[in-house]
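Budget justification, computational time. The allocation requested in the original proposal was used primarily to generate structure tokens for proteins on the priority list. As evidence of use, we reproduce two of the resulting records. The first is shown immediately below.
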Amino acid sequence: MLNVGWLTAPAGVWRNGDDLEQPKRIPVPAYVIETGKERILVDTGLHPAVAEDPAAHYGAAEALAVFNFEQEASVADQLDLSTVTRVVLTHLHFDHAGGLALLPSSVPVVLQRREWEAAHDEAAVQRNFFLPPDYATVDDQVVLVDGDHDLLGDGSIQLLLTPGHTAGHQSVLVGERLVLGGDVVHYASGLDDHRFPVFADDFAAQAASADRLRELRDAGVVVRPGHDPDVLRPGPVLV
């Protein structure tokens, strides 16, 4: 795990029912999976310019006013991006896709077709809170998959369709004992209590996706939540 930034917003934005008057600071993770032949980056974190001046980078995106951005080191500061063989995006929110612009143009970017289609539909862009500057540079790099997908063709890394938080959100099953859950839940407890953020493409679908990951957790799989400050620590993820 790499820590590629921090976000602060009212606690009730991150988890329904929490205090909307109390600020809550959460980490922004990205992950590197290394195999014998591959170095796979899962999510890219914030674009460095966002921590400096969000309005200058994105324009007058009113919804950004609720967030405070911090970044000590971008994904490019922590990883030689020229060594990355492919990128998997769990989804296209700015804290997961903002660093796409830092990638070499030769690196494939793998995401769900329904996520990419939503990112080019005006109503879905608004509903999913997508920011098109995040993904404007990668049209020629995108590799689209439909539903659950065997990433390397050998069963070692499986992409799991887990929609709801966004239209085509996906999680990443690494081996048999670890799931990088993306933002199916922000907090580990969300797998049980379904206290999601106040924003979503489809809350019912998100609940079903949380139940899917909860079943894996209950079967002994480690499920990493999206932004839980009590769970996420930079470094190797032990299972």
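The second record produced under the same allocation is shown here.
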Amino acid sequence: MDADTLRAAQAPLKKRYAEDATAAVVTMRADGELDGTGVACKVRTATALVEAGLHPASGGDGTQLCSGEMLLEALVACAGVTMRAVATSLGLDVEGSVHAEGDLDFRGTLGVDKAAPVGFRDIRLSFDLRSSADEEQLALLLKLTERYCVVLQTITGNPAVSVTSTHG
């Protein structure tokens, strides 16, 4: 997709959202099915049913997806798509790779040490880029990618989260 095609696709959306802010709010969903026989959750994605389970550091055997790794994968996917969209809009030729890694202290999630955090304490996102763009253009590309990456902004923004349960 080139910049003109991207602008043409986004122009009517931007116009609509500018005129009606409520139209810009989209509720996204994810659904899972608790595994009745093991310690797993089956998650429906747009293209497949995947099974998440325990990471080996918390007792899993490594045959199922780890939700922590899935979070990092979502960050990589979002950052990569966002960077490609920004590069397209700016008319920059950019290729390369996106990497995310995070440090998780399993004492927290296993209840070994109540002072240990549950969740990632540090996440590092990095890009290994190939481009003919100059340093100033690449700095702008990174700045805009950070600004518009939904997953990155969600992680760093500390959104309000509610948890509910129904019983039947």
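A brief technical remark on that second record: Residues 23-157 form a domain with the GMP Synthetase; Chain A, domain 3 fold (CATH 3.30.300.20).
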